[in-house]
Design goal:
The protein folds into two domains: about 5-240, Methane Monooxygenase Hydroxylase, Chain G, domain 1, CATH 1.20.58.70; about 265-300. It is about 85% helix and about 0% strand. It has helices spanning about 5-20, 30-65, 70-105, 115-160, 165-170, 175-185, 195-295, 295-300. The longest helix has about 100 residues, at about 195-295. The chain is rod-shaped, with a radius of gyration of 41 Å. About 15% of the residues are buried.
Length: about 300
């Protein structure tokens, strides 16, 4: 792929980014919650763009392994470097956006009705970003492994008698690069040793860049885990508070139920006592009535 074609593709990608990015309303036009979810949509779009760049990198890596000649190899390696630069810029941008969302959440009271939902959304978004970064690392590692295998084949061609330890030292250790160089230049099996040497140096430099990028992505993973943990701590706190509230509500319901049962029992006892008292009064009334109706019986009894 020519440099002009690369620039054309990159221009199309940037154009798609701008076309797919909706107009962001000003903060004054939105309430805080609406602005938060608008920011979330922006991050989602940026992650989609990041995935596109990663797939573009994967295809460019494949072409670099199939390149023939110094000119084509260097052209594709330059393309790869440009894509890597775009990826780094995009990753840093998304990281800053997630940190901004995290800062917004930290200033939100736990009692806010959207607190748990916003923190949960930020956590989910961060994990999606982590999955995308993990895919990026897989693409880089796959290319690193294939590049290393290619260097091993070239070294064996240059020095068929080389041992495994010697090959590994020449390929993996930067300080052992001179051994690789001398073996290639001294080889009688190579018709164009210097051309092969330039290719080897380019591949070794590419491997070192991938290793450096892997360290940077590892550091990014640590930071993303911190963001997730910060959100999760608050979510756990909210869940604990909710569970405590539920328990207190359940306990209150039990007490209310007991009070209702006691009240019902008290009413029942009151009715029984009232009936007994009424029966006693009726009995006394009957006795008095009979006494008044038969006074002679009362006198004889005296």
């Amino acid at each position: 792929m020519s440099r002009d074609r690369l620039q054309e593709l990159q221009s199309e990608a940037r154009g798609q980014d701008h076309q797919s990015m909706p107009m962001i309303p000003q903060p004054s036009e939105l309430d805080p919650s609406s602005q938060f979810y608008q920011d979330v949509r922006n991050v989602e779009q940026e992650i989609d763009t990041l995935r596109y760049h990663i797939e573009t990198l994967s295809r460019a890596n494949q072409r670099s392994l199939q390149a023939v000649g110094d000119a084509q190899t260097q052209r594709i390696l330059t393309e790869v470097e440009n894509i890597q630069t775009d990826l780094t810029t995009k990753i840093n941008s998304i990281k800053q956006m997630l940190e901004h969302l995290t800062a917004q959440n930290q200033h939100l009271p736990h009692s806010h009705p959207d607190s748990a939902a916003r923190r949960g959304r930020t956590t989910a978004l961060t994990r999606t970003f982590q999955d995308t970064i993990e895919h990026y690392r897989d693409v880089d590692h796959t290319h690193w492994s294939k590049t290393r295998d290619r260097l091993i084949r070239q070294y064996r061609i240059a020095k068929p008698t080389a041992t495994e330890d010697e090959i590994n030292s020449a390929v993996d250790d930067e300080r052992a690069g001179q051994i690789f160089t001398e073996s290639i230049l001294a080889s009688t099996r190579m018709s164009d040793a210097r051309r092969v040497l330039r290719s080897v140096e380019s591949r070794q430099r590419e491997m070192r860049q991938i290793e450096k990028k892997a360290l940077e992505l590892n550091a990014l993973f640590v930071r993303l885990n911190e963001i997730v943990n910060a959100q999760q701590e608050v979510i756990d706190t909210v869940e604990i508070q909710v569970n405590e509230t539920v328990k207190e509500t359940e306990a209150a319901n039990v007490q209310v139920t007991k009070a209702i049962e006691i009240r019902k029992s008290s009413r029942k006892k009151l009715w029984i006592i009232s009936i007994i008292v009424l029966l006693v009064l009726i009995g006394i009334g009957i006795a008095l009535w009979q006494a008044r109706s038969n006074p002679s019986q009362l006198t004889s009894m005296q």
